[in-house]
Specification:
GO cellular component, one term (chain A): plasma membrane
Distance between the termini of chain B: 66 Å
Low-confidence stretches of chain B: 285-346
CATH class of chain A: Mainly Alpha
Oligomer: heterodimer
Number of strands of chain A: 4
Distance between the termini of chain A: 71 Å
Largest sheet of chain B: 6 strands, mixed
Largest interface: A-B, 121 and 118 residues
Order of helices and strands of chain B: HHHEEEEEEEEEEHHEHHHH
Low-confidence stretches of chain A: none
Structural class of chain B: alpha+beta
Largest sheet of chain A: 2 strands, antiparallel
Keywords (chain A): Copper, Electron transport, Heme, Iron, Membrane, Metal-binding, Respiratory chain, Transmembrane, Transmembrane helix, Transport
Radius of gyration of chain A: 25 Å
Strand content of chain A: under 5%
Helix content of chain A: 55-70%
Shape of chain A: globular
Shape of chain B: elongated
Radius of gyration of chain B: 27 Å
GO biological process, one term (chain A): aerobic respiration
CATH topology of one domain in chain B: Immunoglobulin-like
Number of helices of chain B: 9
GO molecular function (chain A): cytochrome bo3 ubiquinol oxidase activity; cytochrome-c oxidase activity; heme binding; metal ion binding
Protein name (chain A): Cbb3-type cytochrome c oxidase subunit I
Number of strands of chain B: 11
Mean pLDDT of chain A: 93
Helix content of chain B: 25-40%
Strand content of chain B: 15-25%
CATH superfamily of one domain in chain B: Cupredoxins -  blue copper proteins
Structural class of chain A: mainly alpha
CATH topology of chain A: Cytochrome C Oxidase, Chain A
Chain lengths: 656, 346
């Protein structure tokens, strides 16, 4: 009996590596510490009522952002392990298996469990407030989306200590990811972690399209909508078309692995090239899904800190919509080297180049927003300005990669790695940082320390260039991606070592950001105005943090930058619109079902990973039960009475 | 502000050292030091692309610096401030127009080069091409010389100034065949043969490498591509032929087992081995007439017993028994591959 148990444990848990044991201990200690703190301070009820069951978009947004920052820590730690392994030739820091797991995890986490939730967090924080809405269109669905992401991410992360991580790359190309190449449970953790959180992403896309289409404040026509909200719309359109492709692709891979089908196997009529096509039909729109909202953030930030209207509004909207559509026709540029023939390669090369046109136009529009403005340089603006040269350079290498015959020389080497890190860090991450620091006062009601923030900014940026510029060079010197080690005779040492230094500088930048947040919490500088930056859009017209109902009175929009114009009207002494009387506000009720349903999904996913039907079937039944329970639940809303609104508004030092 | 000046100084130092590093690196970047016509054309195309991009990028970067400097809030002296100015048709036409023109030029050039540099297109030469059949295995390269009747593992020797017709396939996960100084990468894929023409213009040992991740020992898939004078090549062939090391079908099955290998030379190869490798996986996607037996599959529970790669313990030797069992499907339908090569290109 004991021996059986021991056998099971040694198979079930990942063993044999001191790093893993260290991680095991730290995970157990952290869990114990959290349980202790919650119990000691009697916070269980608070946690359940205020957070786990909330459907409030602002809280859901905060939970997304906290999860994303934790994932950034893990993905970043993975990156530093990779860079350490590559710092010297013939390093023995990570074994090849471990290295393969770490780069797979790094990629998957950074795109799917860091960039996506950080983006959804910012959607949640800003979109309803910019629209003058009380919540998103489907608050219950929104909470469900979050919990599906959260438990999907947990399932994926768990493979680190239980069962073993996926090690076939972040896109799991078969046949390597099939049973023949990866017989362990790692790939199944990948499939189900991504699958469960992917359902959440799809629902978020639907939710925000509905919100933007249906819940704009009176008077906010399409041409008066803030640019960030436009970018969210463009991104969500891409989500609802691209994510089903991911779901189907992973489902087919699962059927291959679980039932022995032959969609993507080498033998039995399978075609693994079909998987490569399918996964990039999602994967390429995916990079535009994450970068479009960053473009929206830059647009807001540039206008605010130049104290000037955004230049070329119509152009900007058209450019984003064009990117959103054209991004579906470029997927093959990820594998020009498959040898599809010159005609096919030419088509996809040109469609890829075309995307550079609207993207370039946006850069000009941002520059001319600053032209004849009054530019100030707080941290959100610093990140935006750093973005421009970084993204321009990344865009240039992108155009170079799109030239199909030249791509034969760039493909799958460190030139490619440097390129996509430059656009994903310089474009996406910088944008999300700008957005995070920009909306931080609106989320939490206090500002972040600017001095530490600028230190963090410079360390991040210098680290970035030191890390990735050498990678362009080493790529053109023949170093291909995903090799776990290289020899002294290659001559790649100096560049790799420099790159590692840059990686660690970026890690230091992350620590500075953590210090910035901790310091700002400790010496809290409250934002009493609700409008710390001199904002232009509606979210700055309400107190910070926003009250639960957002707007005591639904705003009526007459101009594009409504709040800025309102301030101008007030300064000019022109009486603003007649104040409407307060009326009770219709709000959604909290619900435990999203959390419970996500736990059921997690259970089902875990069962399917280990082929434990006794666990998977009850999990799926639980999902069905919670769906039914919600369908027959008619007690989903309530009204906030007028006196409570008055009390809340008075507390926020506002008169109504 | 001291803080800013400190940062500026650090940034300047780093920029300088980066430049130094970059320029020293440039000399060693092998993609820019091609030794054959394909690589040279690709290098020229890369230079052209860089030049074209710089037409837009340099002005944009200069404009950025100028605008930031001129319109900063703390600037002394007066510069215009136009908070309402947000549209100018003429300007917008310019910055839609210029990128469109540049991309149009690039698109035309790309289209021409894509056809000119089609990897399957024979190179113009008076010399008869040499065919080398490349198979990527876990985790080694097998090079067969059908005309010479020899084979090598993990190194390839080619005659200089002679077009080489590489036929690429994989008996395992997809990989990429890349010899940067001769020309660009093409994938090796199971169940199909892709063609890649390359040529070396001078003797030398060039870095060759695997371009697509295939599992545990992927890092060991670098190989030297040695270009030698025609006479040296002929001599090397005859030496190889007299080495007495014979590649049989059974040997191949052993070679195809997951694991790393040293450089090997074989004096002879089995008839049609390359075609059999291609056909083993391709037959179910359009098998020639008369072939109706599909490969015995290896999935699900069975696969656990017959691991082919990925998650083997670092030092475990794949057992011969498991390998043979796992590959039993092969012997059922081996066909004479002559005349049935599937060239994926026209």
């Amino acid at each position: 009996m004991l021996d059986n148990l021991k056998d099971f444990a040694s198979w079930f848990f990942v063993t044999g590596d001191p790093l893993i044991y260290g991680a095991d201990v730290s995970i157990v200690m952290t869990v114990i510490a959290i349980l202790f703190v919650l119990t000691f301070f009697k916070k269980w009820g608070w946690l359940w009522r205020e957070w786990l069951t909330t459907v409030d978009h602002k809280r859901v947004g905060i939970m997304y952002i906290i999860s994303a920052l934790l994932m950034l820590f893990r993905g970043g730690f993975d990156a530093l392990m990779l860079r350490t392994q590559l710092a010297y030739p013939d390093m023995k820091f990570l074994s090849p298996e471990h290295y393969n797991q770490v780069f797979t995890t790094h990629g998957t986490i950074m795109i799917l469990f860091m960039a996506m939730p950080l983006m959804f967090g910012l959607f949640n924080i800003a979109v309803p407030l910019q629209l003058g809405a009380r919540d998103v269109a489907f608050p219950f669905l929104n909470a469900l989306s979050f919990w599906l992401f959260f438990f999907g991410a947990m399932l994926f992360n768990m493979s680190f200590v239980i069962g073993g991580s996926a090690d076939a790359g972040w896109l799991s190309y078969p046949p390597l990811s099939e049973m023949t190449g990866s017989p362990g449970v790692g790939e199944d953790f990948y499939i189900w972690g991504v699958q469960i959180s992917g359902i959440g992403s799809l629902m978020t896309g639907i939710n925000f399209i509905a919100t933007i289409v249906k819940m704009r404040a009176p008077g906010m026509t399409w041409s008066k909508m803030p640019m960030f909200t436009w970018s969210v719309l463009a991104s969500c359109i891409a989500i609802i078309i691209a994510f089903p492709v991911l779901t189907v692709t992973l489902a087919l891979l699962f059927v291959d692995r679980y039932l022995g089908a032959h969609f993507f196997t080498m033998d039995g009529g399978g075609n693994s090239m079909m998987y490569v096509n399918l996964i990039w039909m999602w994967g390429h729109p995916e990079v535009y899904i994450v970068v479009l909202p960053a473009f929206g953030i830059y647009s807001e930030v540039v206008a605010t800190f130049s104290k000037k209207r955004l230049f070329g509004y119509a152009s900007m909207v058209f450019a984003m919509m064009a990117i959103s559509v054209v991004s579906y026709y470029t997927w093959l540029h990820h594998f020009f080297t498959m040898g599809s023939g010159a005609d096919v390669n030419t088509f996809f090369a040109i469609s890829t180049m075309i995307i550079a046109i609207p993207t370039g136009v946006k850069i000009f529009n941002w520059l001319f927003t600053m032209y004849r403005g009054r530019i100030s340089f707080p941290t959100p603006m610093m990140w935006t300005i750093a973005f421009i040269p970084c993204f321009v350079l990344g865009g240039m290498t992108g155009v170079m990669l799109s030239v199909a015959p030249a791509d034969f020389q760039f493909h799958n080497n460190y030139f490619l790695i440097a390129h996509f890190h430059q656009v994903l860090i310089g474009g996406v991450a910088f944008g999300y940082f700008a957005g995070l620091f920009y909306w931080w006062p609106k989320m939490f009601g206090f500002k972040l320390n600017e001095t530490i923030g600028k230190w963090a900014f410079w360390i991040w940026n210098i680290g970035f260039y030191v890390c990735f510029m050498p990678q362009y060079v080493v790529g053109l010197d023949g170093m291909t991606r995903r090799i776990s080690t290289y020899g002294w005779d290659t001559g790649w040492w100096g560049l790799n070592f420099t790159s590692t230094i840059g990686g660690f500088l970026m890690g230091l930048g992350f620590l500075f950001t953590v210090w910035q947040i901790a310091h700002s919490i400790r010496f809290m500088e409250k934002d009493t105005t609700g409008d710390p930056w001199g904002g232009r859009t509606l979210e700055w017209s309400i107190p910070s943090p926003a009250p639960i109902y957002n707007f005591a009175i639904t705003p009526v929009v007459t101009e594009r930058d409504e709040w800025w114009e309102e301030k101008q009207r007030n300064a000019a002494g022109k009486a603003s619109k007649k104040q409407q009387p307060l009326s009770p506000i219709h709000m959604p009720k909290n619900s435990a079902l999203p959390f419970i349903q996500a736990v059921c999904w997690f259970t089902a996913g875990f069962g399917l990973v280990f082929h434990w039907l006794w666990l998977a079937i009850p999990g799926l039944l639980g999902v069905a039960a919670t769906l039914l329970a919600h369908s027959f639940n008619y007690d989903t809303d309530y009204y906030i009475p007028v006196d409570e609104i008055q009390r809340t508004e008075a507390e926020a030092r506002r008169t109504v | 502000m001291t803080f800013v000046s400190v940062i500026r100084r650090i940034a300047a130092c780093l920029a300088l050292s980066g430049l130094a590093l970059g320029s020293s690196g440039c000399q060693s970047m092998i993609v820019f030091d091609p030794k054959g016509p394909v690589g040279a054309q690709e290098r020229d195309l890369i230079y052209f692309t860089i030049g074209l991009c710089l037409i837009v990028i340099v002005p944009v970067l200069l404009l950025t610096v100028w605008i930031l400097w001129r319109y900063r809030e703390k600037r002394s002296g007066s510069v215009p401030y136009q908070p309402e100015w947000s549209h100018n048709t003429k300007l917008e036409v310019i910055w839609w127009g210029v990128p469109i023109v540049i991309i149009l030029i690039l698109a035309i050039v790309t289209g021409r080069y894509t056809h000119a540099l089609d990897p399957a297109k024979p190179l113009k030469s008076d010399v008869k091409p040499v065919t080398i059949q490349v198979t990527s295995l876990n985790w080694k390269w097998l090079f067969q010389y059908p005309e010479q009747g020899i084979a090598t593992v993990n190194y390839v020797v080619i005659p200089e100034k002679t077009p080489i017709r590489f036929e690429l396939t994989s008996d395992g996960p997809m990989n990429g065949f890349w010899v940067p100084q001769l020309g660009g990468m093409i994938y090796t894929m199971s169940g199909m043969a892709t063609t890649l023409y390359l040529q070396a213009d001078e003797p030398g040992s060039y870095l060759g490498t695997g371009g697509n991740f295939t599992g545990r020992e992927f890092a060991k898939m670098a190989f030297p591509a040695e270009a030698v004078k025609k006479a040296d090549f002929d001599q090397w062939v005859s030496e190889a032929k007299s080495s007495g090391n014979v590649l049989t079908e059974d040997n191949y099955q052993l070679l195809a087992q997951p694991g790393v290998a040293d450089k090997l030379t074989f004096a002879s190869i089995p008839q049609g081995l390359f075609h059999k490798i291609v056909h083993e996986y391709s037959m179910s996607r359009g098998a020639p007439a008369g072939i109706d037996q599909k490969a015995i599959t290896l999935s699900g529970e069975l696969a656990k017993e017959h691991t082919e790669g990925g998650q083997l313990a670092p030092d475990s030797e794949p057992s011969v028994h498991a390998g043979q069992a796992g590959r039993s499907g092969r012997h059922g339908h081996l066909i004479d591959g002559s005349g049935t090569t599937q060239d994926q290109r026209k």
